[in-house]
Every structure is written in C-alpha cells, then in structure tokens.
From TrEMBL:
It catalyses: O-phospho-L-seryl-[protein] + H2O = L-seryl-[protein] + phosphate; O-phospho-L-threonyl-[protein] + H2O = L-threonyl-[protein] + phosphate. Pfam families: Ssu72 (PF04722). Its EC number is 3.1.3.16. InterPro entries: RNA_pol_II_suA (IPR006811). GO terms for cellular component: nucleus. This is RNA polymerase II subunit A C-terminal domain phosphatase SSU72. Keywords: Hydrolase, mRNA processing, Nucleus, Protein phosphatase. The lineage of its organism: Eukaryota, Metazoa, Spiralia, Gnathifera, Rotifera.
Amino acid sequence: MPFRFAVVCSSNQNRSMEAHNFMSKRGLLVKSYGSGQQVKLPGTSLEKPNVYTFDTSYEYMYKDLYKKDTNFYTQNGVLHMLDRNRRIKEKPERFQDSRERFDVIFTVEERIFDQVMEDLENREKRTNEIVHIINIDVIDNPEDATLGAFMFCELGQKLEATNDLDDAIDDILSEFEQKTKRTVLHAVSFY
C-alpha cells in the first residue's frame, strides 16, 4: 500500500504546493496544507500583504490580484503560482482542520513543524497509528520551493521503498542529511 504524504507550509501557496505538484507527478500519494491562521500573499509593499481566509479559492485569489495589478503580480510570480495551484486543487487547506491520516508529514520550517506537532499532540488518540513528522527548512521563494520539492520527493521515494519505515527511517534521514548538508528534524506522533 502506498504511503500517504502531507506537505505543510504556512499558507498552502508556494512551498507545499510546489512539493504537492512535483510529488504527485512522480506517483506519490500527497496532500498539501498550510498551518497559519490565514493565507498571506505578497502585496505591493511589505506592510500590505494580500490576506485571505483558507476557504477562499485559488481562482478567486488569481482574479482578485489580476484586477488589482496584473503587471506587478505577473512580475513577482504570484499569478503564475496561483495558476499552478488552481490546477491542483480548489483552495488552500489548513492542516489543523484536516482529520486525514498520513504516514509522513513534511514541514518546511521549524515553526511549522512545532505547529503540526502541537496539533497532533492535542488531538484525541483513536487508532495509535504512527506518523513521522520531518522538517527540512525551505526558504519561501520560487527557486527554493522547487529545490525543496525535489528534496521532499527524493526523500519520500526512499522512505516508501523501505520494508519497515520505523526501523529504516533514522538511517535514511542521516544519509539524506549528509548528502544534502541540510539539517533534518524528525519526530513521531500517533493518531
């Protein structure tokens, strides 16, 4: 049975969606989420981001920003990102609102790793199924999101190829850290 993967960033826009797109094209069973309170996209100034709720569709965000300033949001890549996102799923999803179960949850920064861990620890335990939470820091820009997607996909494929994930994961993560020169955080929780 294939592993169930989740990728979590803050707003379910850039890093998690790039990984979702790439991993699914490589045949992995993956979903993506955000862990923030709201969805934030860059605005025309740092003080004025575009803020949406998690139930706002990617289509609406695309049209809204297209109307606001087509040239600006094309130049900074946000319209391209939203166009990709709306082809993958209807709207961003918040991890804390999902009750789906995963074998592995990837996070893209330590703050998000902590939010995911806190949410999982506060849930009522029902099945005692184990879930591995793995963090690899990925800078929130298009280039690093693409690199992160490659890393999550490669790591996901290695994890899925094991006969016993719980037994093999420490060696796989250690080898991955040495190869990529990236620090990996790993924890387990239960459903």
